[in-house]
Write a structure and sequence with these properties.
Layout lengths: L4 H42 L3 H29 L1 H20 L4 H29 L3 H32 L4 H14 L18 H24 L4 H23 L7 H5 L1 H31 L4 H7 L1 H18 L6 H18 L9 H25 L9 H36 L8 H33 L25
Helix pairs in contact: 1-2, 1-4, 1-5, 1-6, 2-3, 2-4, 2-7, 2-15, 3-4, 3-6, 4-15, 5-10, 5-11, 5-12, 5-14, 7-8, 7-15, 10-13, 10-14, 10-15, 10-16, 12-14, 13-14, 13-16, 15-16
Keywords: Antibiotic resistance, Cell membrane, Membrane, Transmembrane, Transmembrane helix, Transport
Membrane topology: Multi-pass membrane protein
Subcellular location: Cell membrane
């Protein structure tokens, strides 16, 4: 055996571990959209109302979004591999419960439990990746793959959900998680565990404040879709969430062992990465949400055909994240990829504002989603990489939880804000043509008016995000001969300034 064999063997273990870590990430991400396709069938089977339907989605997002910071800190305290295993097993059991649900209440309970265990699994998976890949070029490649899954998993969920619902039953949209979880757990022996030598005391006041604040914020955003932004309940929940989160920041400033050390989010590079992820998800989920309805309602696609229609977006994400971002990330500052990526995605959304009811798939949805997917790939790979830029090993879990929280809040804003804008635009269009509402062509034109309005707003939001990220992130270009490998108190990014 040569002296170089052990490092080579360790290197191959890391890449094999990445496969299983990405499987866990895929499970969490696709579960945001896979159930959307199954909702009509689940509603017919269990007999719940249209008003209750949103709770199947909200139960998951509330639990997941509000507990991510706590899940990340638990992973830091107890060990990332242990948290990964508990999260994956719990997610699988919750999914099995949902698949077997005979009542609406049991389905809701299973979705909430999925969110709870997902909030432990997602940051554990990302922090395992962060501590496994520390060499510059390897880290860039690993995060390119992981970022591509984070960006494209929603589209995969639509395809898989449509196929499972058509070929089998809506319940398999839940059962499939059991299969993925078992596969992910097969790789735990390859993962390098880490935990602090001394466990700090859990910041209970911080846990209560941030959990309650995020619950109020996510719930308020979720209800804004149906109740309207001027609703007293919505305003009250958003205000309550804001007050609680401000109180959380004040407590964290004074606590010796905080749940979220403010140094994690106040770093300009990491802060820019969190903002980029949150804003990028607004564009991504906005695209998936409205193009799904456009494909099925306006273009008449079946669930499976609608899912297949989104495959090009996933491929565009993979090309940009895995083929381009991973090659450039060690050589250029992250904003040199993220700012153009946000602008490219904004251009794709602007393209979709030209949709008409009779626009062909190739000239409309296909072209738009290829541009958006390419832009998102350039954003997500460096953003998720730099979300753990320079953090201390004991903070890797909570830093991972923070980027997942940014994704969740961005997704909630996308659903609530853009759907409200789209609905209002559609209502205004149809109100001006009240005598023609019985004509399907007029209804389709009204729906497209709403979709294109949402695309226009999402495009503007991404342009603003590009400007903000360009100003905020300040990581310099690496100098010739500079090494970025770290061995001490920080987890490096693909290159460090």
């Amino acid at each position: 055996m040569t002296h170089s064999d052990p490092p080579a063997r360790e290197n191959s273990r890391r890449w094999l571990a990445l496969v299983f870590i990405c499987l866990a990430q895929l499970m969490v991400v696709l579960d945001v959209t896979i159930v959307n396709i199954a909702l009509p069938s689940a509603q017919a089977d269990l007999g719940f109302s249209d008003g209750d339907r949103q709770w199947v989605v909200t139960a998951y997002t509330l639990a997941f979004g509000s507990l991510l910071l706590l899940g990340g800190r638990i992973a830091d305290y107890t060990g990332r591999k242990r948290a990964f295993v508990i999260g994956a097993v719990g997610f699988a059991l919750a999914s099995a419960l949902g698949g077997a649900a005979g009542s609406f209440g049991l389905l809701l309970a299973s979705r909430a439990l999925q969110g709870v265990f997902g909030a432990l699994l997602a940051p554990a998976a990302l922090s395992l990746l962060s501590v496994a890949f520390t060499e510059t070029r390897e880290r860039a490649k690993a995060f390119g793959i992981f970022g591509g899954i984070a960006a494209g998993g929603g589209a995969i969920g639509l395809l898989l959900g449509g196929w499972l619902t058509d070929a089998f039953d809506w319940r398999w949209c839940m059962y499939v998680n059991c299969v993925i979880a078992v596969l992910a757990l097969c790789g735990t022996g390859l993962m390098r565990d880490s935990r602090p030598a001394v466990r700090a005391r859990l910041d209970i006041p911080g846990v209560l404040l941030v959990t309650a604040g995020l619950v109020a914020l996510v719930y308020g955003l979720s209800e804004a879709e149906s109740e309207g932004w001027s609703s007293g309940m919505v305003i009250g929940m958003l205000a309550t969430g804001g007050v609680l989160l401000i109180a959380f920041v004040l407590v964290e400033r004074r606590t010796a062992e905080p749940l979220l050390p403010l140094r994690v989010v106040l770093d300009r590079t990491r802060g820019g990465a969190y903002l980029a992820v949150g804003f990028a998800i607004i564009g991504m989920l906005g695209t998936l949400f409205f193009l799904t309805f456009h494909a099925q309602v306006v273009m008449g696609y079946s669930p499976v055909k609608a899912g297949l229609a989104f495959l090009p977006m996933t491929l565009a994400v993979a090309v940009a994240a895995g083929g381009i971002a991973t090659r450039l990330l060690p050589k250029v500052p992250p904003r040199a990829l993220m700012v153009p990526g946000l602008l490219i995605a904004a251009g794709g959304l602007a393209w979709l504002t030209t949709l008409e009811p009779d626009t062909s798939y190739v000239s409309g949805p296909l072209t738009g989603q290829l541009i958006i997917g390419f832009g998102m790939g350039l954003v997500m790979a460096p953003a998720i990489n730099y979300a753990t830029h320079g953090v201390r090993p004991q903070d890797a879990g909570v830093a991972s939880g923070t980027v997942n929280t940014a994704q969740q809040i961005g997704g909630s804003i996308a659903t609530a804000l853009l759907n409200t804008l789209a609905t209002n635009a559609t209502d205004d269009y149809l109100a001006d043509r009240a005598s023609e509402i019985g004509d399907p062509a007029v209804l389709h034109a009204g729906l497209v008016e709403g979709y294109t309005t949402a695309f226009a707003w999402a495009s503007g939001i991404l342009v603003a995000a590009a400007l903000l990220v360009g100003i905020l992130m300040n990581t310099p270009r690496p100098r010739p001969g500079e090494t970025t490998e770290q061995s001490g108190d920080a987890v490096p990014a693909a290159h460090l300034g």
